[in-house]
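Follow-up to my earlier ticket, as requested here are the two runs.
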Amino acid sequence: MAERRTRLRRYSAYLATIALLSLMLSNIHNLSAPERPESANLGGAPAREPLASVVFDYAPFIYHATSRSRSRQDLISNIDFDGDFVGNNNWENFERFRLKPTVYYAALETETHYFISYHLFHPRDWNNFTIWMNDTHENDGENFQVVVRKSDGRVVMLWTQAHYDSWVYANPGSGIESGETEIEAALQVLNSDGVPDTAGRHAAVFVQSHGHGIYGTMDSASGVTIRPDGSYSFDGVSGVLYKPARDGEAVDEPEQTSSGEIPYQLDSITLKLWPGLRAGALAGDGRLLDGSYGYQDELVQIPEVPRFYDGDRCSGPLGSDRGISPFALDFSFNRGTLGALFFNPAKRYGERLKIAEPWSRQYVNYPFAK
């Protein structure tokens, strides 16, 4: 019996050593900081929706925490930076091609409000040292949405996504109050100079380093402080401010990715990605997106609303397809309602919040009709 216990201990020690060596070898890439590649970005030109001028007027200011030593992995990018809309080669191609800071959008208009969905894409969700338990994965996407009241041009609500949770931000007097979903915190808006201003048109959001969850800047989970004069500081970390590029301003991967201000380009989800999804060419194994649920209401019938980006880099027991897709907007990830905030936000907000009239559910030039 004693000899058997000794063999068992030796065998356990051997397995532990193998596991430790495997972990160390799989984290070798973390020893060096990713450098700006020589190869240019291969993405196509941005597409402009009919409401592009409204989207630009209300384009967000994005305060993004970064790693001081490996900040390139926190850089937002166009999805087709490597010249294709394939998800399972992005981890490798991240090191080959430059990233072009891009914010994707889809705009809907009702008789009373604008609903502008935004999507941020990172080729990698990463960690300093992975133990392969869903703490790192190929492709990362998160969404947020801005609601604008047309009568006075005010931003009245912000919805954000942090991994698989979501949060709502609104101010007193907005006509929007907690219902089944609670208002998490106040909404902070800025003028074009980045100064807090209740009449400002630019919602301010904070994005985490590594996992890239998105919060309103007044949330207790936010890691940035914006002062009354527009100056700002990140809490204990480095960070960058992404601002919409001005007309004629070049957008490319910057040399400095851990601090400073970086212009971003706007690109349309409705024109760039929706046609492929509608045609059945965008979602499925080996394509860009995967893990689809169906969604339908009185306006649309969508056989596939992808939950994730397609990937082949195993990140743990939950599988390799991770990173939230640009269409997966809702208060939960439940089958049947996932996609409701993207395709029919006026109805969905009315179901979950107390909203004062006027609040129209009639869309103008609805682009996703059956």
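Run two:
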Amino acid sequence: MVRICSKRNHCQTIFSSINLVHFKSQRKRSNFYRPNINVNFEYDGPNHVGVVQILRNYACDCCSGCNNHENTLLMNYLPDAHNHGAEIFTGAKVKYVEKKDKMDCSFEITGSGTEKFNTNTAFVFADIVIVSAGTLGTAEIMLRSKANGLKISDRIGHHFSGNGDVLGFGYNTDTEINDVGYGDKTPPPAPVAPGPCITGIIDLRNTPELMTE
């Protein structure tokens, strides 16, 4: 089964980037904390569902592809579902869902060229359909389903956000933060190593105005 970690899964190692974020929060008297992140700090081999994971080496490749280090669906929910009998198919793009005698889930085979033609897609029937395609993918599927007659809320596609509403970048700063990833090279030890992509948060939700520098 997919289990919940009993301990806080935040990065406890000190990196120069964390120190800078903490310093900025103190200057603005803002709330600073280390978030729980989906990074493996526990396994160096098969995890609790049998997928081999490697301990984090702090190379800072979270955005470009941190293979086997992150605790994402690929490493837990999906293989656990497969272990319990679920059938998983790749290379298929869900187009929309219709309500007939059962739920009709229409899809097309990716790379087949059928998307160039206005033809009927392949489909499967199910008693229950759970749409779980991420923030943007789910809204896209549900809006197409609505266009094909599925009765759903008019609020679909409104009032949601992606992973972070603001991205900030620092260049030529007074403090060296070592935030460039090492790829397949071995990074130096902390605090010189870049570390995970998300290690510190400045919480401004109770701030009247957005912090500017």
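The only thing I checked on run two: The chain has a mean pLDDT of 77. Let me know what else you need.
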